[in-house]
Write a structure and sequence with these properties.
Elements lengths: L1 H27 L20 H11 L16 E2 L2 E2 L12 E6 L2 H12 L6 H13 L9 E4 L4 H7 L3 H6 L22 E3 L11 H8 L3 E3 L9 E9 L3 H12 L4 E9 L6
Parallel strand pairs: 3-8, 4-7, 7-8
Antiparallel strand pairs: 1-2, 5-6
Length: about 270
């Protein structure tokens, strides 16, 4: 009995001390929102309530599983939607985390161009959640990040798509028990330095990345089902060219998982 009371007392003291230490730390280094820098509580998971609400608004809504753009179930035509029915897409389906807007856009830009590595896990979690909800997650042989040219890689310091890919889970087998995750494969490479895509028209985007990718010698894509991974897609030109290259190398099917889809009104 005495021992039990001592343990309870010691546990209570430790809890009070822990709370005091956390309060002292918060006083010296108050937590701020990762996006807008407003002060937040320690339990707010690094985003303020306003940013959380805006982020949740970016990830909701139905979308076309062929091109990734917003589309209701009533707006689907055949395999896709009115936006993509006329497009010759080489990838066989897409899973998206959300729409490239608001807080999600700010997070991607900070992660991609300003070394804000703290967004890595959250953006990857969004892509992974979308992938797990897709119809193809259980049939993937390899996860393939969209590559950067070596010049862009040196300039940026890292390939954001590769970092996201390392956290994704997909693979052959039933969801229960969980299948072993498909291995990461980096045999797809970018062999030509290209202009940045964001200020180009859809037609120039396609021309910009044409023949910009290749696969390494000794690749093992024959008959495989692959999942391309990127942080953002706009016109789909980069994903399409990558998928075309992979299928030319023998891939049976190529899907895509992205954090966000941009320019919903792109013609």
């Amino acid at each position: 009995m005495v021992e039990s009371r001592f343990i309870d007392f010691f546990g209570g003291v430790r809890a009070v001390c822990g709370s005091a230490v956390r309060g002292f730390n918060h006083l010296l280094w108050p937590a701020v929102c990762d996006v807008c820098q407003l002060h937040i509580g320690q339990s707010d998971q690094r985003l303020c309530r306003g940013c959380w609400d805006e982020l949740l608004g970016c990830v909701g809504g139905d979308y076309c599983k062929r091109c990734g753009r917003d589309a209701s179930v009533y707006g689907l035509i055949g395999r896709g939607c009115g936006n993509c029915e006329h497009l010759d897409l080489h990838y066989d389906g897409i899973a998206r985390g959300g729409v490239y807007d608001g807080v999600l856009r700010d997070m991607i830009l900070a992660f991609k161009f300003h070394d804000r590595m703290e967004f890595d896990d959250r953006l990857a979690a969004m892509a992974n959640s979308a992938l797990q909800g897709s119809s193809f997650a259980g049939s993937i042989d390899y996860i393939v990040p969209v590559p950067l040219h070596w010049r862009r890689r040196i300039e940026r310091g890292y390939n954001q798509s590769l970092l996201i890919s390392r956290r994704l889970k997909a693979g052959q087998g039933p969801p229960s028990p969980p299948a072993a995750s498909a291995p990461l494969n980096t045999d797809l490479v970018r062999i030509r330095h290209t202009d940045r895509q964001w200020n180009l028209s859809p037609s120039k985007r396609r021309t910009n990345v044409k023949n910009a990718f290749a696969v390494r010698k000794g690749h093992n894509y024959s008959g495989k089902r692959l999942c391309l991974v990127d942080d953002i897609t706009t016109s789909g030109a980069t994903l399409n060219e990558c998928a075309k290259t992979l299928k030319a190398a023998g891939a049976k099917a190529v899907f895509a998982a992205v954090v966000a889809v941009a320019m919903q009104d792109l013609g």
